[in-house]
Amino acid sequence: MTKFSILDLCPVVEGGTISQALDATRQMARKAEEAGYTRFWLAEHHGMAGIASAATSLVISEAARATSTIRVGSGGIMLPNHSPLVIAEQFGTLEALYPGRIDLGLGRAPGTDMNTARALRRNLDAGAQTFPNDIVELQQLMDDPVEGQRLLANPGAGAKVPIYILGSSTYSAHLAAMLGLPYAFASHFAPDMLFEALHIYRTNFKPSAQLEKPYVIVGVMGAMADSDDEADYLFTSALQSFVALRRNARGKTPRPVESMDGIWTEMEKMSIEHTFQFAVVGGPEKARAKMERFVADTKADEVIISVPVHSVEARLKAVGMFGALRDELKEAA
Q1: DSSP per residue, 96-158
Q2: What are phi and psi for residue 206, nearest 5 degrees?
Q3: What pairing do the DSSP bridges indicate for beta strands 216-224 and 3-8?
Q4: Are 202 and 216 in contact (CB under 8 A)?
Q5: Is 206 within 8 Å of 198 (Cβ atoms)?
Q6: What is the structure's pLDDT at 320?
Q7: By CB count within 10 A, which of 53, 99, 101, 242 is most buried?
Q8: Alpha carbon of 253 to those of 12, 25, 186: distances in Å?
Q9: If you write DSSP's letter for every residue of 36-73 in order, what string do you get?
């Protein structure tokens, strides 16, 4: 049966503060654990007024501290922004604090605009090019030390935090298959290469010490409510955010609106609706039909759901409803 997880961006909403965003993430983690989700992931973004998870490992620690059983981790850490040693130390520390509960999802995008990326990285071009080697180095730093090993991560050595490759292209599919690592595809905002990437990953997968057979996680945007109309209304926050992103006018997560008319152009509407083609938005019946179809089409081992909703209360309710939907699908299987 397909597992369900939550991807939280620690959103800073219009009318809200960073402190409130961090508290909402703690509430979301507790709700996800209560509702029986497999994992709760946070993503690294920088220089964005609407996202408060820039210091990703710190926010992961808060989510783990607020819970007791659910796996918590990154979806993901943008490894080219960091040295492998620093990430080994950070996640080795997290593993020591919360044993057996930490995941390390890795991506190669900057997670920000180019100016901020330049400030984060000493060599902007080298980051993506060295990504495969950096992953291997990171694995070695978190594995058991070998005789004569000169570079040690402490904490980190022996932590063996499971690594996941994140991506939105066929490059990441080839890499995850070659390294024998679980693969998470960002179909929640990059749908076009989903099925090609999954085919490449499954076809070319090579077993590794971490993983014997392919393991696929797929992302969806989601908004569930008591009715289709209410869910559509809540999801307009995500639609507005993506309009702003297209216009390079990023801000806090906007309040929902009754209609997007006059907010987006016809071209923006077509583009964003295409981007969100897999989004699961609706009341219980509509959401179930959409999720059933998506799971059947992807044959995913796990679905990770992002809930881009302004109201914390509505976000928490949606997490509970998606958990109930998972249970319904399990009973029907």
Answers
A1: HHSTT-EEEEEE-S-SS-HHHHHHH-S-HHHHHHTHHHHHHHHHHHHS---TT-----TTTTT
A2: -120, 125
A3: unpaired
A4: yes
A5: no
A6: 98
A7: 53
A8: 6, 14, 20
A9: T-SEEEE----S-TTB--SSHHHHHHHHHHT-SSSEEE
Give per-residue burial for 241-262: e unless 16+ CB within 10 Å, then b: bbbbbeeeebebbbebeeeeee
Query: What kind of architecture, by CATH, is found in domain 3-332?
Result: Alpha-Beta Barrel (3.20)
- Other CB atoms within 10 Å distance of the CB of residue 226: 11
Matching residue, tokens 């959401």: 287
Strand partners, 137: none
pLDDT for the residue numbered 128: 61
pLDDT given for residue 278 in this prediction = 98
* Identity of residue 232: D
Q: What pLDDT does residue 196 have?
A: 98
Give the tokens for residue 3: 């597992």
DSSP string, 152-213: --TTTTT--PPEEEEESSHHHHHHHHHHT--EEE-TTT--TTHHHHHHHHHHH----SS-SS
In this structure, which amino acid lies at residue 239?
A: L
Using CA atoms, how far apart are residues 183 and 204, in angstroms rounded to an integer? Answer: 12
Token output for 125: 């071009």
- Which residues of the chain, if any, have pLDDT below 50? none
The two structure tokens encoding residue 322: 């998606």
Closest CA to 57 of 74, 71, 81, 35: 74
